[in-house]
Design a protein that fits this description.
By secondary structure, the chain is α/β, with parallel strands linked by helices. It is built from 16 helices and 21 strands. The strands form five sheets. It has a six-stranded antiparallel β-barrel with strand order 13-14-19-18-17-20. It has a five-stranded parallel beta sheet with strand order 2-1-3-4-5, sandwiched between helices. Strands 7-6-9-12 form a four-stranded parallel beta sheet. The longest helix is centred in the N-terminal third of the chain and has 24 residues, at 14-37. The protein starts with a strand and ends in a 29-residue tail after the last strand.
């Protein structure tokens, strides 16, 4: 749910105001009703904006209610300086909405006001049309969802557990730039805290968690070396250590370096990372807590935006392999796929029955369990924040996850690292475009089509939107946000 500020803007001439007052009020009520029907809270200014003083005072009144987005509603011709003054008093995302009615030139008012904001350099979005049309409603709601995510970022804290992993420039970011661009602070925490606090986890809780995993997972392949009940319990203890750090430091999302200190000398963080990203653990339902492996900062930030947009767990993976014969990518990374992706069920047991715990591979001599499963098929949106010459951009591509028959699935998984979680992804762009342009080794995804919202997020944040394939020209203007289905090879399917 978003909190939306609504300012009905009118004509500045008193003799015109008398004739249009009721129309402006009815139009604003209709828009507020549409927004409330969608589950949002709407704060409407006490008075219509009919003068320069009311433009400022009403905008300030709305701003004091801390909306996620402010809508200036143009249902009649409006004096453009009212829009400029209201925008000046309005922090945060701004949307101009206009009716299209030949008797009441609200569209003209929106264009005049929007042009003024363009000249002033004030970022804003626009939506227009008959509110009875689903595409028009969707254009407005796309901006609302994006604004809710952008506002949700501001004032949040990222917990960076450890430093830069294995020389990855793309896993580190400038904390000043994060605060300036996204409003996010970074709390630096040493990995020793995970080790130290693990010792204090209550044994009864740890035992119950291990037994729950043994009971619900498809299998737990203890080998007496890389995976033992004691090592699995150590991984569970790291989960509780992370939960303690999250609560103590009020962390909104996190990243754990892991390699090589923990993975070589303590245990892998696969269990902790998977279940922090899950909407449940062995103790019941919980909020997801976005956690990136290798303390990848821009990964975690991308994931947090996707979570705030959708409410779903967010997938993290390496772009591990490309199966050219199928035009399918194997997205595979140790530990980072939330178990929810195994079946995308609200029932943890349904997901866990597709999950197998394997002994960790040679990369991680300290051992522990890897959380193996294959992501269920379906349509997906893929994204990643990257930087070019210091400036942020967001890569976005539509696509889907696919599965095949059991034999083919196994063959494809064994082509890379069998023991890790996998997602077979069909992307809506050519492999050449992707490999030429994509600016990181990690990629992230959520179910559904959220390309329009991500473009709006970029516009509101003032960063470059960089769409691949058919997402390149995917906009938020007339008709674009209504979207339609994915269709084609990127839709996500189960192939038999």
């Amino acid at each position: 749910m978003a909190r939306i500020g609504l300012l009905p803007v009118s004509d500045g001439r008193d003799y015109v105001q008398r004739d249009v007052h009721d129309h402006v009020a009815r139009s604003a009520d209709q828009l507020a009703g549409v927004l409330r029907e969608s589950g949002h809270e709407v704060v409407v200014s006490p008075e219509q904006v009919t003068s320069n003083t009311l433009a400022t005072s009403q905008a300030r009144w709305v701003a004091d209610r801390h909306p996620d987005i402010t809508i200036l509603h143009h249902s009649v011709w409006t004096f453009p300086h009212f829009t400029a003054l209201a925008a000046e008093a309005t922090p945060g995302p701004l949307l101009l909405v206009a009716n299209i009615d030949p008797q009441f030139p609200g569209m003209v008012g929106m264009l005049a006001g929007g042009g003024a904001l363009d000249q002033l350099g004030r970022t804003h979005a626009r939506a227009w049309g008959d509110l009875e049309e689903p595409a028009v409603r969707e254009r407005i709601l796309t901006q609302v969802r994006a604004a809710s995510a952008v506002t949700g970022l501001r004032g949040s804290t990222f917990g960076r557990i450890g430093g830069r992993p294995m020389g990855m420039y793309t896993a580190t970011a400038n904390t000043d730039q994060w605060m300036r661009t996204f409003g996010v602070d970074v709390e630096e925490i040493d990995q020793w805290e995970v080790v130290r606090r693990s010792e204090h986890a209550e044994q009864a809780r740890v035992t119950a968690a291990r037994e729950w995993l043994e009971r619900h997972a498809a299998a737990v392949h203890y080998d007496g070396d890389r995976l033992t009940p004691q090592l699995l319990e150590r991984q569970i203890r790291t989960y509780y250590a992370m939960r303690e750090l999250i609560d103590e430091w009020s962390l909104d999302f996190s990243g754990i370096k892991g390699q090589p200190e923990l993975t070589a000398n303590f245990c892998t963080m696969d269990i902790a990372e998977a279940f922090l990203n899950d909407p449940y653990d062995w103790e019941g339902p919980k909020d997801t807590h976005v956690t990136s492996t290798e303390a990848d900062m821009d990964a975690a930030l991308t994931m947090q935006i996707l979570k705030l947009l959708t409410g779903d767990p967010v997938l993290f993976a390496d772009v591990r392999h490309y199966h050219a014969d199928k035009d399918v990518w194997d997205l595979c990374n140790s530990g980072q796929h939330a178990t929810w992706y195994a079946a995308r069920s609200a029932d943890p047991a349904e997901n866990l029955r597709h999950v197998t715990l394997h002994p960790e591979v040679f990369y991680f001599p300290a051992g522990g369990a890897s959380v193996q499963h294959l992501a269920a098929p379906g349509e997906m949106t893929f994204a990643r924040l990257t930087r070019q010459d210091g400036a942020y951009r967001m890569h976005v591509v539509r696509g889907g996850f696919e599965t095949y028959d059991e034999k083919t699935n196994e063959q494809m998984m064994r082509a890379s690292t069998w023991e890790w979680p996998h997602a077979f992804a069909s992307l809506g762009c050519a492999a050449e475009e992707f490999l030429t342009k994509f600016g990181a080794n990690h990629i992230h995804a959520v179910p559904g089509d959220h390309v329009a919202e991500l473009r709006a997020v970029c516009e509101q944040l003032g960063i470059r939107y960089d769409g691949f394939g058919d997402a390149a020209g995917y906009g938020t203007g007339a008709g674009a946000a209504s979207g339609g289905g994915f269709g084609g090879p990127g839709a996500g399917r189960q192939v038999r």
